[in-house]
Amino acid sequence: MMSLTSYLLISLVLFIVGLVVMISRKNIVAILLGIELILNAASLNFVAYSRYVTNNLDGHIFSLFIIVVAAAEAAVGLAIVIRFFQIKETIHIDEATQLRN
Amino acid sequence: MIDQLFGFLSYYVPEIISIILMTTLLVAEAAVKDDQAPRLKIHIFTQIVLGVVLMTLFMNLDEKPLHIFHNAVTIDPFSTLVKIIMTLGTMGAIFLSHSSKDIYPNLKSEFSLMAVGVLIGGMLLASANNMLTLYLGIETLSILSYVLSSLKRDDSTSTEAGMKYALYGGLSAGIALFGMSHLYGVFGSIQFVDMITRVQGLQGLNLAIVMISFVMFFVGIGYKISLFPFHMWTPDVYQGSPIPVTSFFAIVPKMAGLAALVRVSFVFFSEGSALSVSWIGLVLVIAAMTMTVGNVTAIGQTSVKRLLAFSSIGHVGMMILGVVVMNEAGVQAILFYGLVYLFMTLIAFYVTSHLSDMYGTDSYDVFRGLIYKHPVMAIIMASVLFSLAGMPPFSGFIAKFNIFSVVIQKKHYGIALVAAINSVIGLYYYMKLAKTMIFSKPQGDELVLGFSGLNQTVIILLFIPVLFLGVFWDSAMSLAGNASIFIK
User: Fold this and answer.
1) ipTM score of the complex?
2) Residue B277 CB partners (closer than 8 Å, separation 6+)
């Protein structure tokens, strides 16, 4: 029997891994993957709380919305990355240096 | 039950019209393809429908606060006034997009389409009454903004701007969502109305979790209105995006985010609890940092777009001081500031856009000696810069004065001093630009062609409120005052 704490720990680990991926990886697609990990951590939290604590469906519905929004965000993000790749022929984040002080 | 839902729809007419407009634009855009002639018609149609949205919003302005759709959405004068400001901003940006060369001719209807989409997201955010609506509002706003900022798709800076926006935006939305999930766990509901009743009884671990979660939640909103530690994307995105998009970003998402910040602050932190003291402290520190960073960094800029980006950061820092005081007068000051800021920003971006279209750059040099070439526009632009700096007799002075008066009434003398110092710094860089326009000799003697008769008329029409609200502010103040009464 899994307890609420195990779910919360897993989601916390997912969240931290997502943050670390976003900060440390230089590949833009990997950074987008980091965002997905963070969103999934939040989604897992919602479902776990819904099941163990609140006993209402708010959390389940919220996580469905998160999935939809994450898909839309990934679509737009990847489309922009493709444009970036077509112009610069790289998806290394350090190449995005045209806009600076 | 069903009857009730349909009854609620009558309060939701502005949003419904906007959604229908967006769908129509999507179809129309696909139908005209590369044919240029119908685009003017689409443009006029968009403006007319947005005018209708504005009218329905004005009709909603007298409604008592009402929670509709199972408490998901609040319709109250406050959210309606914010929606009016956002709709005006959208109309202004769409008008600018039509004459701007910064947007490819075959993407002009697409700009209107996505601007209306962002407006819908902003409306959702301004009247959000539970966490799901708030999240959806932020995301509708953000996802379309990413597309808008990379609208100039063959240009590497624009694509880079869109990419940076998307990455920062995704991160901050994720952090905010993680905070929201823990708030849901502690409060047991996503409805604000249920959450308020449980705020007071929090203790121990739950209180700690809630505090951390609210800070995470603050990241999401703070990023949208570019508050201090989350402002890094703002200058890059503003500089990289086409100018109509920049003018749009400076108004619509900011007002929506501010509305959400005001609502969240008033819903959860209006009592004198331990939580509310720490929240006010947080907002106070962030406001001071935001103003200082925005104004100090603006000094060294050479790109006018970037300058306006930093100045907008400074203005938002000033506006959220109205949240710190936690009373109706503060909200009234924010709304009045937002209304005035709308007109000033639009004019500043209009003039910058026409000049940058002509010279192909937006550096200070294009403003050199504008008064010799185009006296009327130069005087209007100089007055707007004075107004942005907060000099009387322009409306920017009254807006700043209101903020100062509510802050000093609550005896926050320290932050008032910081705001005063920032106003002086702001005066310096605005006057530097005004000096370039008036006292420098023009480089060449070519005429400025960008200002067509229609463009000039619109700029002058927008200038009337900037001047008028600085002298006769009573009507606008009472409008903002009425809107702020029901905020609690």
Assistant:
1) 0.95
2) none
Quick one: CATH architecture of A27-95? Orthogonal Bundle (1.10)
Q: Which of B144, B167, B181 best tests the A interface by mutation, with the highest count of A CBs <10 A?
A: B181
3-state secondary structure at position A92 = strand
Q: How close is the nearest chain A Cα to the Cα of B112, in Å?
A: 18
- B-chain CB neighbours of A54 within 8 Å are 184-185, 188-189
Distance CA A49, CA B128 (A): 22
First CA to last CA distance, chain A: 55
pLDDT score recorded for residue B243: 92
Cβ partners under 8 Å of residue B205, min gap 6: none
Q: Where are the domains of chain A?
A: 27-95
Q: Give the pair of three-digit tokens for residue B202.
A: 């929090």
- Residue A53, classified by CB atoms within 10 Å of its CB into exposed (0-12), middle (13-18) or buried (19+), is middle
Residues 119-138 of B with CB under 8 A from A: 131-132, 135-136
User: Comparing C-alpha atoms, which of B354, B345, B349, B364 is closest to residue B450?
Assistant: B354
pTM above 0.95, yes or no: no
Residue B428 has pLDDT above 70, yes or no: yes
